[in-house]
Structure formats: structure tokens, C-alpha cells
Amino acid sequence: DTEVTQTPKHLVMGMTNKKSLKCEQHMGHRAMYWYKQKAKKPPELMFVYSYEKLSINESVPSRFSPECPNSSLLNLHLHALQPEDSALYLCASSQAATASLSYEQYFGPGTRLTVT
Amino acid sequence: KQEVTQIPAALSVPEGENLVLNCSFTDSAIYNLQWFRQDPGKGLTSLLLIQSSQREQTSGRLNASLDKSSGRSTLYIAASQPGDSATYLCAASGSARQLTFGSGTQLTVLP
């Protein structure tokens, strides 16, 4: 099973709201990723978790707060977002994320976020 | 910094045609190169992964090649079908453990 699940599929939130995106995988992968994708653009990396620890933060604004409660679950907490944050948010996982090894990344279906 | 380019940006072909999508990258120090398919509004589906030590990978009607020295990869699709219509993205994995994506090729296969 190479499935990464994401909930919700769609989310509409106001600029003062607090919401969370959820991502789950049961492949035993130890690396998980958050990407942001604007329309007709490639995905842009936001965060990388390796063995449940944040290893890469691509200078993402603090209104995005990632959390990795366990090796199967990844959350993205959202607060005080701006309309320009509207995008498709993709989660991915891979077997590992070490510097000397590179593994295939598996993506979830994404959450379509609209900020009003 | 790695830069990945995909040409053409869009391609329209009649059903049954064989086609090649191109991907080029500026830093040859990659661990692997991955090809993805993305349908409109959907997530990415991994098609093929080529490790840096490999020259090509095949899966069904798809064949991907990698030439690190020239910084190029190609995705060959044989006997194209309307169901192959999608955006195809290539991504290079480098020492920063990150995938650098190209902007994609939007493929339309006409019945």
C-alpha cells in the first residue's frame, strides 16, 4: 500500500480562523513533507520531518506551524492566513531523508485551501 | 542552486503517437530523478524513479532515461492514449534532501 491520505480535501477559512490540515501514511516511512502548490506552478517545499523531528523549514511564515505527533501522522496548523496563501497543500512521505540516501516520495491528494 | 527545466511547456498529440518529454537540470550532483503525473486539482502520482547510478527505468508504456553528465532526463510514452492527458513533472533530488521540480509539461492526447 503506497497511500498517503490527507484531510480535509477542501477547506475555506477566514483570515482570523485557526484550522489544521492532516496527513497520514502507514508505509513505515520516516520522512514526511509539506509542499505548497499554486495554480499552474510546481510544488514548493515548505517543511521536512525526519524521524519526527523538523529538519528543514524553507523560511515559511510562522502563520504555518507544522507538527509531527508520531511517525505516521503530520499536521499543518494554520492561523491568521492571508488570501495569497490559498493553494493546494500537498503532503508526501519517503522511506527516509538522509543526506546520503534518497528515496522515492509518495504524495497525497492534497488539500485545496481557500482563504477569504 | 539546482534549477530544473521542462520543455515543451505544453504538447498536444493524436492518440497512438509515441512522444518524448524533456527535463534538464543544472547540477549533476543528484541522487535520483523522479517523474510524476498530476491530473488537474489532484496530487502527484509517482511514475518512475531513476537512481543516479542508473541509466533508465521502464514501467509499462513508460521509459525514463537519465544522463547525469549532460544534465538531462527524458520520459518516453509509447502509443499514447487520451487517458495519458495530464501534467508531467520531473524532479531532481540533491544533497539538500529536497526535490527540485520543473514547471511541468501539460500533455493533451487527442482521440
Can you tell me about this structure?
The complex is a heterodimer of chains A (116) and B (111). With 116 residues, chain A is mainly beta. Chain A has no helices and eleven strands. Chain A has strands spanning 4-7, 10-13, 18-25, 31-37, 44-50, 53-57, 64-70, 73-79, 87-94, 106-107, 111-115. In chain A, the strands form two sheets. In chain A, strands 2, 4, 5, 6, 9, 10 and 11 form a seven-stranded mixed beta sheet that branches. Chain A has a four-stranded antiparallel beta sheet with strand order 1-3-8-7, with no helix packed on it. Chain B has 111 residues and is mostly beta strands. Helix content of chain B is 0%, strand content 60%. Chain B has strands spanning 4-7, 10-14, 19-25, 30-38, 44-51, 56-59, 62-67, 72-77, 86-94, 99-101, 105-110. In chain B, the strands form two sheets. In chain B, strands 2, 4, 5, 9, 10 and 11 form a six-stranded mixed beta sheet that branches. The radius of gyration of chain B is 13 Å and the shape is globular. The model of chain B has no long low-confidence stretch (mean pLDDT 94). Chain A binds chain B through residues 4, 6, 41-43, 45, 48, 50, 55-56, 88, 90, 92, 97-99, 101-102, 104-110, 112, and chain B through 31-32, 34, 36, 41-46, 49, 51, 89, 91, 93, 95-99, 101-104.
